[in-house]
Amino acid sequence: MPELVDPIFITAHTATSALGRGLADHLEALRESRSGLRENDFTRETLSCAIGRVAGLESLPLPAQYARHECRNNRLAWLGIAADDFLDRARAAIARHGAERVALLVATSTSSIGATEEAYARQSDGRFPDDLRRPEVHTPHSLGLFLEHVLGTRGPCLTTATACSSSAKIFALAERMMRLGLVDAAILAGVDSLCGSVLFGFNSLELVAPEPCRPFDVRRRGISIGEAAGFALLERNAADRSPALIGWGESSDAHHMSTPHPQGLGARLALEGALARAGLAAADVDYINLHGTATPRNDEVEAGVVAAAFDARTRASSTKGWTGHTLGAAGILESVVCLLAMEHGVIPGTLNCEEPDPVCGPQIALRNETADVRIALSNSFGFGGSNCTLAFARGGQS
Amino acid sequence: MNVLDIRIDGMGFWAPGWPHWQAARAGLRGEMQADPLVGKPSPALLGAAERRRAPLPVLLACEIAAQACAQSAYAADSLASVFASTHGDLVITDYMCSTLASAPHELSPIRFHNSVHNAPAGYWTIAAHSHAASTSTSSWHWSFALALFEAAVQAHAEGSPVLLAAYDTESPGPLSEIALAAVNFGVAMVVSAALDGAASLRLEFNSPIQASAALALPDAFAELARSNPIAAQSLPLLAALAAARPHTLQLPAGSNSTLGIEVCA
To answer: What is d(CA B250, CA B238) in angstroms, rounded to the nearest whole number?
Structure first.
């Protein structure tokens, strides 16, 4: 079993998704049980499904000095980093610690492949159009290049791309680098944006629901895809009020590329790793933000793991019914939801779940609840059998 | 701590004409010529059907990863892993983007699930029966340097050896002039924390150390470096390892960063 790790403080965080820009918009939508999902109006070809689209990106080009990074994914990053004064706080941290002592750890599943799709659609004579002949946007590291340009960090800058666990795993990277004293702070960014690849790709696997997704409902029919940008600033020392990352667990299913291990072995290993590093027992956990994609298999397996490991006092829910599945951004977006739950004492319900699958234990919260949330977990699982569970403690607790 | 001392416990290598590290090491020393019969990686670890069906990055990554594990003293299922590629699977990117432009409803589900950047890691963990943590990374022209650094961080932080596999594969179609990769190339290492002074490599991000004069690459390897991003990024280090004498490098590791590497030999 892994050894206990010291807490790492989260001194700033924010999220932008279909629910809005910044923490206040997210809290309000969660409290009002107001979904951000709407009928797909993104793809040119018809695809009947719900999407979690961030409004207004089309009319928000990047500032001129960042023009070579121009694409939907980086626009979303730029919109998201401004919310809750995150950019100013990140710059202040860089000034405080020195650019060399700050890591920039980014996560995405498809990065700016939307720009590559557009270049193919508009190619002539087998060549990309002039305005898209920019190698910086046709690479998985597009987001990292853009944010490194914006922030001027000189510490390690790495893209983690492990599908839907990507932006959970960057919390683990940050903890390891900070524990070894290699950096004093880490700026974490998870950004994924709507594109044809994921909408038609998940559709080809018959994993996209025709209606807004219904996590853990017995009639669930698949995911709704969303887009989001989430950011977190992690530092070793902070004022008492900051919440903290207190543990993480990573594992591989070693089972199948696109379906989970039937007994949830990988999910269980990730959970055990997070609890061990945090020094927690399952009974200490107040809330779990589940991966809860609303695919038949994910929810069945994940509900089984939760029912077996926790008692009824621990509350658990999926917030995919609010935001859609934001893929590589889901880990950090849902970590922000955990931080909101802890700060404001609100446990989000599982929007759109009316009749829970019989495999669900009593932990699954269907409606919003008020509770004292000191310890929260976030689950993220991805294609390739990549699993990550994060453990957080409320500000002033650790 | 700023410095990470690591030991290399196993090496894997594959490029056209150079099917393993022993051959590449001899080639880098100018003691061996390329084998013209070596055209495509074919990892025994995968079953025959998967060897036929799997995308090239999967074959390449599994081949070099299996080589490095075999050379180390560790069981493949015991190792955490870090996979890295500058561009990911460009053949699938080309397929996805072409199909989306013409007939998006006809997208192949198999090719979609193989399109994730961590597809090689997924196939590897399945074939090696490994439930250990695995990550898949990319950092533009610095993908190899950052992945080596991350593998070293994991080895030190968790106190257990880590498999690193870095590769790039050929780019087709209109992508070939945007994301240049004309040949397939991969290199793997099993690294562990060297706490007893017996380090193979000493890594330091933004180290002030002075780099040694660059080692000249034999023509065949200079050509690989021109034709594949991971080759260009890793061959300066691999040449120093092949030479087996102390050497110091500064690998570019970001827009304004370097990774200092002392090869302790």
So the answer is: 13
Q: Domain spans of chain B?
A: 3-198
- Answer for the pair B185, B230: CB distance below 8 angstroms, yes or no: yes
Residue A138 phi, psi dihedral angles, 5° rounding: -105, 45
A107 touching B, CB under 8 A?
Answer: no
Catalytic residue among A164, A195, A338, A388: A164
Query: Going by CATH, does the domain composed of A8-393 fall within 3.40.50.2300?
Result: no
- State how far the Cα of A311 lies from the Cα of A84, in Å rounded to an integer: 36
Comparing C-alpha atoms, which of A33, A31, A77, A84 is closest to residue A54? A77
The model's pLDDT over A258-293, given as tens digits with 9 standing for 90+, comes to 999 999 999 999 999 999 999 999 999 999 999 999
Residue in B108, B125, B255 closest to A252 by CB: B125
Of A140, A177, A182, the CB nearest to B117: A140
B125-175 pLDDT tens trace = 999 999 999 999 999 999 999 999 999 999 999 999 999 999 999 999 999
Distance from CA of B12 to the nearest CA of A (A): 22
Tell how far CA B244 is from the center of its chain.
Answer: 20
Strand A20-21 and strand A8-17: the pairing is antiparallel
Q: Is the distance from CB of A332 to CB of A230 less than 8 angstroms?
A: yes
With 0-12 / 13-18 / 19 or more C-beta atoms within 10 angstroms meaning exposed / middle / buried, residue A358 is exposed
Nearest to B206 by CA among B254, B147, B154: B254
Contact A2, A273 (CB under 8 A): yes
**A217 strand-pairing partners:** A356
The residue annotated as part of the active site, out of A325, A353, A360, A388, is A325
- State the Cα–Cα distance between residues A107 and A294, nearest whole angstrom: 23
Are A45 and B104 in contact, with CB atoms under 8 Å apart? yes
A325 in active site: yes
Q: Kindly give, in sequence order, each residue whose CB lies less than 8 Å from that of residue B265, ignoring residues fewer than 6 positions away.
A: B200, B243, B244, B245, B246, B247
Q: Hey, what amino acid is at B152?
A: A
Q: Which H helix or E strand runs over A260?
A: none
Nearest CA to B149 out of B1, B2, B247, B4 is that of: B4
Burial of residue B264 (CB within 10 Å: 0-12, 13-18, 19+) is middle
CA distances for B101 relative to A39, A123, B216, angstroms: 22, 10, 45
pLDDT in tens, B41-88: 999 999 999 899 999 999 999 999 999 999 998 999 999 999 999 999
Place of tokens 């590449």: B24
The catalytic position among A69, A291, A353, A388 is A291
The token pair that represents A285 in the structure block:
């956990």
What does the DSSP assignment read for B103-152?
-GGG--HHHHHTTSTTHHHHHHHHHTT--S-EEEEE-GGGHHHHHHHHHH
Architecture of domain B3-198: 3-Layer(aba) Sandwich (3.40)
- Beta-carbon contacts of residue A294 (< 8 Å; ≥ 6 apart): A209, A213, A214, A215, A216, A217, A220, A221, A222, A223, A224, A318, A320, A321, A325, A352
Looking at the predicted complex, does its ipTM rise above 0.95?
A: yes
